[in-house]
Amino acid sequence: MRPDILIEQRIPPPPGQEHPYHTMFPDISRQTVEVVIDTVKTRGLWTLPQDQGFELLRSMYARFSQEYGMPTPRLHQDTYEFYMISAEDIGLPKVSLVSACHEYRHHMRKHGRKRFDDIEVDARAWSISLFHLALPEDFDRAWRRGKIWYMPPYPG
Fold this sequence. Notes:
By secondary structure, the chain is of the alpha+beta class. It has one domain. It has five helices and four strands, in the order E-H-H-E-E-E-H-H-H. A four-stranded mixed beta sheet has the order 1-3-4-2, with helices on one face. A hairpin with a 4-residue loop joins strand 3 (82-84) and strand 4. Helix 1 (30-42) packs antiparallel against helix 2 (50-68), helix 1 (30-42) crosses helix 4 (119-134) and helix 3 packs across helix 4. The longest helix has 19 residues, at 50-68. The N and C termini lie far apart (41 Å). The relative contact order is 0.19.
């Protein structure tokens, strides 16, 4: 594996070693939250054909990049999730809000934004917190159904 590529490994942690990722970034900017709300609710990310969904994620990345003052990474469909650090290239196998935000956080980290030393904890926490802040009902439904990796069991 090349050292400049971050490839996501979807191996759940052992029970009891999950993190409350949805609470680890309570201070994400309102503008970032609004971009996600607009992407999903107004523009219909989850209802679009895949090619249009990827275009909408590219637009979301451009809006994030404008807010954070950094270049917009390239996004394309691939067989796995990754962020290529040197090329600022993101690959996703399908349209996924949390995965897209997770990979974007790796891009933010390249440009000096980090909170947690562990790169995966940082990316998981930012992406899952953003989902929780922007779309709390959708987040709860997904968590309850076990659709959010690395989270503890739904409390209830």
